[in-house]
Amino acid sequence: MKTHAVISASTVITMNPDQPRVKAVAVDLSTGRITVLGTVAECLTAAPNATHTELGDAVLMPGFIDPHSHPMLSGLVTQAPSYWIAPYVGYPTFADVENFWHEVNAKLPVAQPVFFSGLDRLLQEAPELTNTQLDTYFPHRPAAVLDNSGHEAYFNSAAVTFNGWNDAKPPADPVGARYGRNDDGTSNGRAYETAAVMGAIMKVLTAANPHPLASGARWLNLMSSNGITATSEHTYASDMAAGYTALESTTHAPVRVGLYHMSIEPDCGETFTSTASTERLWKQGIKLWADGSPWVGTIAASFAYLDNDRVRQAQIPLGPGGEGMMNYTRAELDEILDTHTPQGWQFAFHVNGDIGLDIVLDSYERALATHGLLGTDHRWRIEHCGAARADQFDRAAKLGIAISLSPFQFIYWGDVLDGTLFPPNIGAQWMRAGDAFRSGAVVSFNNDGMVSPPIPLLNVQAMVTRVTPSGQLHGPEQQVSLDDALRAHTVNAALTLGRNHDLGSLEVGKLADLVQLSVDPYAVDVAELTTKVKVQGTWLGGVLTDAQTYLDEVKAIDPTEHPQVHAAAMAGKKGCC
Asked: How confident is the model at residue 570 (pLDDT cuts 50, 70, 90)?
């Protein structure tokens, strides 16, 4: 058996400024690490018994890294046998959703439960559904729909019966959540916030999708098909440990996963052990949520929403929400950071509103000073930062805080952000990538799991051009260079994810994680990047990934050995970003 491989292409983009381009990569297959970068002759001379794969006109570069995702939940609620009905995956209007529901109902066995996710009342202009409305599409089978915000779910009368609720009445409202009720106390087919959403739809989801690990594998395959070789689980709970160990212990797992433990878990500060390789699966840090989602009006912001029909239909409170939208008091934040900072974990904070970010930065700065970490390479993180200001990015950079931006907020909601949700001075500037890079901070891009399709090249294109899919230009002063945008999904993403020592660039000693592209991304008009440049495959540790073989491996796992996956994944859904 050959222990070395040489992979050559028309060009190999290393993202290493000391050796920016080569023709070939030599890999020690026993370790998956790069031994030589250079010409084909140099690589073959250094590894004379290696197999040689010549990719012709293809281009190689470091595998893309999405440093903020939710693979288990994303697979569970969007991949077969669940159905993804978001506007940007083929259902731009509510009429499209309705037509699809009729098709699904007609083709499945009469009693088969069905689960859908991604209904977006803002973009699709969908109504806030009731059980009687859903009964018109699904008169007999249990059906549940998870709103794209993650804050609300809808379900039909058959689902109410399936839940076993006496007299069709929901149980008592959980703390911080509630069930929708008719005047007589019966369910109206709605549930709000995580605990009630889980109580309402979990039985339907479990019946509709009995093998959650297979769906998780499908999501990781989807990431791989878009060139991603490493990502994170940003809502990790210990009940997911066995599931992720199983996913990452297979021979053909295509994506490495770093875990961020939810701060609400009592054991979030404990170490993580697994039989999976630590190169494939590791615990990186702790995740917190400062505020909520811009699409439902729960961000801690200093500015109000515009008052118009679209905003009112989506039932967004005009605000401004200010500090009242924070999920923690400042004292609570300080206590969490003081508890876990001595344990050495990296922190990652979901925050969208400008007031929320001020509070997070205040708490971060106090904790860094208190624990002697100012000026160190701690890489504490802030996530999304939709409404962040330039001065806030400057402050984050001075504190050594990494910034993980979410281009999908601009891509899919950019047109309604600018002039519908907010005035142009706020909406056109949403997701200020230009200001973030100018601050000197480490800036990465993410897709946040089920919130958007994991397409790094689309993120790159959008942040370079600041043009949405409709062709509209918003905030051109926030454009970034192509090189910076590609670094945001390679070198910078590896830094953000704590893996820059072995991922993010192609260098001797690093892992040979590669994305194979049809065309050099530096050689095309960036506005045509996603149409001209195609992902042809990914390589993990110098081995070409195989989606079908991986899925077959995971399907062979007995799902009854992982009964906790459904509930653990759903418990982490805190609302989209």
From this structure: confident
Closest-CA residue to 42 (of 1, 6, 16): 6
Tokens coding 271: 């170490």
Model pLDDT for residues 534-561, shown as the tens digit of each residue: 999 999 999 999 999 999 999 999 998 8
Helices (H), 341-406: 354-370, 390-398
Alpha-carbon distances of 511 from 35, 62, 225, 541, 558, rounded to whole Å: 10, 10, 19, 5, 31
Which domains are seen in the chain, by residue range?
A: 4-57 (no CATH), 83-208 (3.10.310.70), 213-560 (3.20.20.140)
Please state whether beta strands 114-119 and 83-84 pair in parallel, antiparallel, or not at all (unpaired).
Answer: parallel
Q: How far apart are CA 170 and CA 31, in angstroms?
A: 54
Residue range 356-366: mean pLDDT, rounded: 98
Do residues 198 and 152 lie in contact, with contact meaning Cβ atoms separated by under 8 Å? no
Distance linking the first and last C-alpha atoms of the chain: 48
Q: Please state, rounded to an integer, the average pLDDT across all residues of the chain.
A: 96
pLDDT value, residue 567: 81
Give residue-wise pLDDT tens across range 418-469: 999 999 999 999 999 999 999 999 999 999 989 999 999 999 999 999 999 9
Token pair 């699966």: residue: 281
Q: Which residues contact 199 (CB under 8 A, 6 or more apart)?
A: 170, 171, 174, 179, 191
**Contact, 71 vs 451, CB < 8 A?**
no
Q: How confident is the model at residue 576 (pLDDT cuts 50, 70, 90)?
A: low
Longest dimension (CA), the chain: 81
Across residues 406-413, what is the average pLDDT? 98
For residue 445, what are the CA distances in angstroms to 100, 396, 433, 458, 538? 32, 16, 9, 11, 19
Number of helices and strands (H, E) in the chain?
A: 21, 22
Beta pairing class for 346-351 and 381-384? parallel
The pLDDT of residue 314 is 87
d(CA 238, CA 271): 10
Can you spell out the DSSP letters for 409-475? Answer: HHHHHHHHHBTTTB-HHHHTTSS-HHHHHHTT--EEE---GGGS---HHHHHHHHHH-B-TTS-B--
Q: What span, in angstroms and rounded, lies between the C-alpha atoms of 10 and 23?
A: 7
**Mean pLDDT, range 517-540, rounded to an integer:** 98
84: three-class secondary structure by DSSP: strand
Residue 547 three-state SS: helix
Residue length of the chain: 577
Q: Distance (Å, rounded) from C-alpha 510 to C-alpha 410?
A: 33
pLDDT value at position 564? Answer: 85
DSSP for 128-189 reads ---HHHHHTT-SSS-EEEEETTSSEEEE-HHHHHHTT-GGG---PPPTT-EEEE-TTS-EEE
Q: Give the separation between CA 473 and CA 469, rounded to whole angstroms.
A: 10
Q: CA 570, CA 76: separation in Å to the nearest integer?
A: 9
Q: pLDDT for 154-178, tens place per residue?
A: 999 999 999 999 999 999 999 889 9
